Amino acid sequence: MADKLRAQQQLEQLQVRYVGTGHADTTRFEWSSNIQRDSYASYVGHPPLLSYMAIGMGESREKVRSAMIEKMIQPVGKPPEVQD
User: Fold this and answer.
1) Whole-model pTM above 0.85?
2) Which of 15, 34, 36, 79 could anchor a disulfide with 75, C-beta 3.0 to 4.6 Å?
3) Closest by alpha carbon to 75, among 49, 44, 51?
C-alpha cells in the first residue's frame, strides 16, 4: 500500500512540475495544445532542425523561427466554448 501511495505522490509532483504531463482533468484541447507547443519549442530550440525545415519551406531561418513562435500562442486554434 505504501508503494501505491509513494507512486501517486511522485506522479502528482511530476504533474505540478511539468505542465505537459497532464492529469485526470486535462481536456483534449489542453493536451493537444501542450503537445504542439512542446513541438514548436523543440524546433526553435534545435538550430539544425530549424534549418532543415526552413530549407524545405523555402524560407529564411528567421522567418520560420518567428512563425513558429507566433504559432505557439494558439497552436491548435481558439479554445472550445465552455458549456455550463
Assistant:
1) no
2) 36
3) 44
